[in-house]
Amino acid sequence: MPSLVLALGFAPAVAAQAATDSLPCHRTTCGLVLDWGGGSTTSSLPFDRRYGNPNDFEEKVRTGLLAHGIRVAFTGTGDLKILLRPRMNTRSMCDAMPGVNTDMSCTSMSEVTAVFTPNEATTKLPSTQNFRNRCPDPKQAMTFAQFGSYVAESIWYALEGERAKQGRPSAHC
Fold it and tell me: Is 115 within a domain?
């Protein structure tokens, strides 16, 4: 009788592990590619005095996905390839609040397009997703780090969260 109780105690944990392993990028590593366009790389983009370092975006996306158990590598290979195409806004407001003679010389990220490409035709994936860098004030934008965290949460939601009836991520400006 004790062996039966012990076996039943492990059943939910085994079922949960099997459900997690069936999700994309949990069992195997998926490829994450950032296409900055025009031959640019993260390190070739300059630091912005208001919105920070573009490297923060890449780091926050990777760590945010890892926090949800989504394993990614910046190689573009794996069961699933996630291609991120950021669009930059070179005329973003530098001031904390708009006023007279507002400085619009900062660079922020206006949106990111995520394209999900499976290596197997049987894998059901979300369609192409656009994540916009929106704040309550249309002249404001999230920093690179804040937007990276938001994009990671949005990718997780597209891959798993919506199916699991989780709440949609929201921007924190």
Answer: yes
